[in-house]
Amino acid sequence: MAAVTAVTRWRLLLVLSTAALGAAGAPQPPNILLLLMDDMGWGDLGVYGEPSRETPNLDRMAAEGMLFPNFYTANPLCSPSRAALLTGRLPIRNGFYTTSGHARNAYTPQEIVGGIPDSERLLPELLKEAGYVSKIVGKWHLGHRPQFHPLKHGFDEWFGSPNCHFGPYDNRARPNIPVYRDWEMVGRYYEEFPINLKTGEANLTQIYLQEALDFIRRQQAARRPFFLYWAVDATHAPVYASKPFLGTSQRGRYGDAVREIDDSVGKILHSLQDLGIAESTFVFFTSDNGAALISAPKQGGSNGPFLCGKQTTFEGGMREPAVAWWPGRIPAGQVSHQLGSIMDLFTTSLSLAGLEPPRDRAIDGLSLLPAMLQGQLMDSVHHFGLRPWRGGENLCPVTSRAKALEPDPSHVPLCTGILCVRSHFLSSFRSLSLCSDKMSVPGCCDRMGVLKWPIFYYRGNTLMAVTLGQYKAHFWTWTNSWEEFRQGIDFCPGQNVSGVTTHTQEEHTRLPLIFHLGRDPGERFPLSFASTEYLDALRRITPVVRQHQEALIPGQPQLNVCNQAVMNWAPPGCEKLGKCLTPPESVPEKCSWPH
Amino acid sequence: MAAVTAVTRWRLLLVLSTAALGAAGAPQPPNILLLLMDDMGWGDLGVYGEPSRETPNLDRMAAEGMLFPNFYTANPLCSPSRAALLTGRLPIRNGFYTTSGHARNAYTPQEIVGGIPDSERLLPELLKEAGYVSKIVGKWHLGHRPQFHPLKHGFDEWFGSPNCHFGPYDNRARPNIPVYRDWEMVGRYYEEFPINLKTGEANLTQIYLQEALDFIRRQQAARRPFFLYWAVDATHAPVYASKPFLGTSQRGRYGDAVREIDDSVGKILHSLQDLGIAESTFVFFTSDNGAALISAPKQGGSNGPFLCGKQTTFEGGMREPAVAWWPGRIPAGQVSHQLGSIMDLFTTSLSLAGLEPPRDRAIDGLSLLPAMLQGQLMDSVHHFGLRPWRGGENLCPVTSRAKALEPDPSHVPLCTGILCVRSHFLSSFRSLSLCSDKMSVPGCCDRMGVLKWPIFYYRGNTLMAVTLGQYKAHFWTWTNSWEEFRQGIDFCPGQNVSGVTTHTQEEHTRLPLIFHLGRDPGERFPLSFASTEYLDALRRITPVVRQHQEALIPGQPQLNVCNQAVMNWAPPGCEKLGKCLTPPESVPEKCSWPH
């Protein structure tokens, strides 16, 4: 079979998939529903091994859909991850990073001056081209100054807040965070939208649930394809739950919040079924970063067997629970070992809408659609079992992340089942060469038929680590400073891997620490530098990293400058509510990012 | 409703359950199949969150059966746990412990002089009374001298070995471990039964599988109820797998062994279905102790989110994967949060056979049958979800462990669904008083309707810890000595909880370290001594421990004396094979148990 044929067949499959997406009689692309959690960890769901197993609805979602145990966020912190999800680009490209110090995490508090640049093209903006109506429910976190408003970046509706629900503030030194409906604020946290820090009671998840159900109903009635981005934040400290859920979890208040979210997800999925649009709605559940172990156990979740949590570039900081659900399209009860990224949701969503990702910039997301739909080509499989390797048309996901490797992404591997193909291309396929080993071609598919794309782990503008296939290489290791650690700020409580969970920034760029994540998901046993396995892994990883770094054009960093004057003193609509506050004098300062 | 009525009703349910057990037309008790793993950890199954998810058959077994996430072994080491399983009694009672040092683990190597005492009544011996034919396939580990032979303790057939598959030995300083068929050896490991330590290849799991299938077929043909104890050891270092499985796991050789066992379990369950006896066979899968992290990552498994592993009394050492399967009887896809113990399999098996546990001794196992069967009284539930609290006849397991608390087990709680009952009884129910709070009665059922029985954690004759409900109290903490630790013997690699994972024996008997295992399954955050929660938990735990210790009559310790002369030099049958070796002079010595 000629290589060109493989490519043609690949494109054909994509075209067929896209063409067949509309419901019978209505050539309409599927609805897209992204459920994004806040600081929820990989280990927080029953299906991911949480011992209390209090997530029956999410577990059922997994049983009816596809589980991605190797799914990653783009950053161990909330706001850069969210920017990455909506742009399909690493924070280092879209500007959600800082250059204020070496390897520093940064996010979007209300004194931040930056936000999502106009030059970035966000998912809802692109989906408009295919007729989608888009709503964000919950936390935006891509900037709160007027130019960053979500309705200026493609969303048609918004109910939620621009920043984290920290507080309560005194409205003199700091204003409480506003809650918006569309263009205008409708109140503030701790004021019109109470959160009882003592009891943990807040009604917000219920409000966010109703906002979602209402939006879905309206779009279904209008027969418009919709994109709903449901970004709830009850599992971010201070965690909260509404009264019926408070005190109901074996896991304490954090578990109460998880249970309420689980219940809400169940209601959302049921509503899709009741409205008859489950089979025309793609749903994906994931989280923005690992569980915040610094808030555990009372206000933080679980990262299961993984090392450390939020703020770190160990697996616990960046590996996320991930479930895809699309009855009738994504086969039930499957597990995909494809390395996936939150940025893939950008490209996957565009694929669903029949759209191409922007061609004028590097895009880091690839479409997971083939990985999700290829199961249809296979025998029906056991629940939660291993997806067996099958030959034939067992296509691996491809293309989009390759484009991110411009200008010279040579030797990017493609996989077409029993054929493994190395492609050399710039903006499109240029030449292809076949390799015949069907089972385990280095740098190509692994024996499960999973394509090896890299996952990059950044802190600020420092590439801390990369994962390729089962191998993860750390170029820098750091949790936080001794100074912070001695004050009780611990991102890895109870965990201590000598020379790995370090409190000084340790450089390993010349001889990275490499772990095999299959044998050692907890990153406890670095491979011996002298082993053949180490040298083989390094040989494969090195060119991928070099390529990435050589081609990288960092965006303008958005998270360097802070200013008390830009806080939410007088958001639009404050006049109507009589809730405008007077900002202090404008004093731009360098933000402080201690870790 | 009078208290007596509740008891009567309870007994009635038991009687009904037992009476209804036989297949239609055949008043025969169900077959019992216990699948006992060796050093497999809680986190090793896909359904328990192992990221590679390579156990489709075990995961399906869970989906078709009931999962017990809070299931414990009786000791963090293999041979005492196995003795506990077969006697229904803690090692401190049945003699499988040492008094050679404080808080020392001990097991059954081939130089051990002791073994299972004749005075202990083993499960197969008792099941004979109900007409069962019993076979052990795999590791016995209850003593290898003639008087300890499994066929002298109730088993009718044996294929397997008396000790661990360590070796190869030179047959001069130490003999290789024999493999028995029934009364006589048929060869030795590394000789007739090769294990390639370099490649990890061994055919033993396949042999054990065939032994199981053959036994099941024979008993089904003879229409005799059977007890099969399938005690395979491929996941104990040195781990092994047969050729078709070697190199197939993402987890390395340990994963290869798991995959082969998973495949074998699938074949065993299928055979039950093919033979039409699935609905008359109770199957339970668990492991003897936590994963041996000292052998990780190449030869050791995963304890998921739990602390440390084998040899320790932290959760990683004693919490086990556990799945019950009995199509048509145990409802599918359920989770039971009942605290369960490997010793409960003894009492549960007797209940299945319509037998009572021995009345002349303390029995630590309770019957899990009501917990397993009560699901039938409930609505069908979601897969892998939380079992919802239901009122009515939602009975909690009861009786047997209460008896173990003699002579004065007052205030042992019973639970009958929405009624919570405190009973005061000696050898039988004496008086009962009702308490009306249906949701969360201290010391009684928790809000999930799960009865709170204690789990005791011993090292040697030292009570290290106890778990009651969600609370675990450590009276002693120790991993191993500094001396061993500095030599690289690490039972908690990558984990370090200050003041908890200690290398000196730390006494906390007056003020135990208490953890809430729901919020903090990893035992990282001890409760504050000053908190109300701590004091409440201590108040509930203290009388349970006092009662246990006051009533305890330790058995004669079997694991104190070692002697090179008692090793497997000349097992029965060696003459026929020409494989008798000459033992050295008999020199009894105190065994060395360093940790």
TrEMBL record, chains A, B:
<dbReference type="InterPro" id="IPR024607">
    <property type="entry name" value="Sulfatase_CS"/>
</dbReference>
<feature type="active site" description="Nucleophile">
    <location>
        <position position="78"/>
    </location>
</feature>
<feature type="binding site">
    <location>
        <position position="39"/>
    </location>
    <ligand>
        <name>Ca(2+)</name>
    </ligand>
</feature>
<feature type="binding site">
    <location>
        <position position="38"/>
    </location>
    <ligand>
        <name>Ca(2+)</name>
    </ligand>
</feature>
<feature type="active site">
    <location>
        <position position="141"/>
    </location>
</feature>
<feature type="binding site" description="via 3-oxoalanine">
    <location>
        <position position="78"/>
    </location>
    <ligand>
        <name>Ca(2+)</name>
    </ligand>
</feature>
<feature type="glycosylation site" description="N-linked (GlcNAc...) asparagine">
    <location>
        <position position="203"/>
    </location>
</feature>
<dbReference type="Pfam" id="PF14707">
    <property type="entry name" value="Sulfatase_C"/>
</dbReference>
<feature type="domain" description="Sulfatase N-terminal">
    <location>
        <begin position="30"/>
        <end position="354"/>
    </location>
</feature>
<feature type="signal peptide">
    <location>
        <begin position="1"/>
        <end position="25"/>
    </location>
</feature>
<comment type="subunit">
    <text>Homodimer.</text>
</comment>
<feature type="modified residue" description="3-oxoalanine (Cys)">
    <location>
        <position position="78"/>
    </location>
</feature>
<feature type="glycosylation site" description="N-linked (GlcNAc...) asparagine">
    <location>
        <position position="496"/>
    </location>
</feature>
<feature type="binding site">
    <location>
        <position position="289"/>
    </location>
    <ligand>
        <name>Ca(2+)</name>
    </ligand>
</feature>
<keyword id="KW-0458">Lysosome</keyword>
<dbReference type="InterPro" id="IPR017850">
    <property type="entry name" value="Alkaline_phosphatase_core_sf"/>
</dbReference>
<dbReference type="GO" id="GO:0043890">
    <property type="term" value="F:N-acetylgalactosamine-6-sulfatase activity"/>
</dbReference>
<dbReference type="InterPro" id="IPR050738">
    <property type="entry name" value="Sulfatase"/>
</dbReference>
<keyword id="KW-1015">Disulfide bond</keyword>
<protein>
    <recommendedName>
        <fullName>N-acetylgalactosamine-6-sulfatase</fullName>
        <ecNumber>3.1.6.4</ecNumber>
    </recommendedName>
</protein>
<keyword id="KW-0732">Signal</keyword>
<keyword id="KW-0378">Hydrolase</keyword>
<keyword id="KW-0106">Calcium</keyword>
<feature type="binding site">
    <location>
        <position position="288"/>
    </location>
    <ligand>
        <name>Ca(2+)</name>
    </ligand>
</feature>
<keyword id="KW-0479">Metal-binding</keyword>
<dbReference type="InterPro" id="IPR000917">
    <property type="entry name" value="Sulfatase_N"/>
</dbReference>
<dbReference type="Pfam" id="PF00884">
    <property type="entry name" value="Sulfatase"/>
</dbReference>
<comment type="similarity">
    <text>Belongs to the sulfatase family.</text>
</comment>
<dbReference type="GO" id="GO:0005764">
    <property type="term" value="C:lysosome"/>
</dbReference>
<keyword id="KW-0325">Glycoprotein</keyword>
<dbReference type="GO" id="GO:0004065">
    <property type="term" value="F:arylsulfatase activity"/>
</dbReference>
<dbReference type="GO" id="GO:0046872">
    <property type="term" value="F:metal ion binding"/>
</dbReference>
<dbReference type="InterPro" id="IPR035626">
    <property type="entry name" value="GALNS"/>
</dbReference>
